[in-house]
Structures are given as structure tokens and as C-alpha cells.
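[09:14] KT: can someone run the structure on this one? pasting the chain below
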Amino acid sequence: MGQVWCQRTAHLHVELHDEGLLAQTTVTIDGHPTDGPGDLAEFLQQLADDWRGWRGRRVWHALGRELTVEATPDVRGYVALEITVRRHRWSYANDVWSATIVLMLEAGEQIDALAREVRALLSSG
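[09:31] RB: done, C-alpha cells below
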């Protein structure tokens, strides 16, 4: 008998804060992004596991693309995480908006800790 995969859809309130910027949206995560691994925690864990670096950019999108995480390694052992949030629903309306911040994290332990926190958040409640 084959495996049965049960995936839960989550709707998360997400906020970006950075030097006067406050961007808020609702993100739909269902475990089946358009690029990359099956969920955000898995995506982050793969980044941590590949702490020695990789070529190019890795991208993860939420279901409605309200959240995008792009990861690019550098030669110093850090990863630039470019996090973009977009307006929830009606992303092609005349008043569409997006906001992006970039975090520089240590390729190993800091991203591993982030992956654990995201996994705990998504598995709670």
C-alpha cells in the first residue's frame, strides 16, 4: 500500500519591519509551492544543510505568491535571504503593492535555527 500524504493549508499573518517600513499581509501556505521543496521549513532546512554554498539563487513561493523567499549564498559563508511580501488577493489590481527586505544570515546555524522556528510555527495549532 502506498503512502498517504496529508497536507494542511495554513493562512498566516506576516509582517515585515525594517527602519520605518511596516508591511502586513496574509500568506497561504499549503506545502506545494511553485518552485523548490514542499514547504517553507523544508526549503530553509535545505539551505542550512547546504551551508557550504550552492550556485545561483534558490526561490520559494507561497501558494498565492504573497510571500517569496529568495536565497543567494556569498563567498563569506553567509546567505542573503530576500523576503518579499505582497498584497493578499487581487495581486493584479491597480493598487497592488509589495515590500522586500534582505537578511544576511550565517549559512549554517542561523538558517538551521530559522528552519526549526518555522517548522515549530507551522506545526503548532
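[09:33] KT: thanks! Residues 10-123 form one domain.
[09:34] RB: yep, looked fine to me
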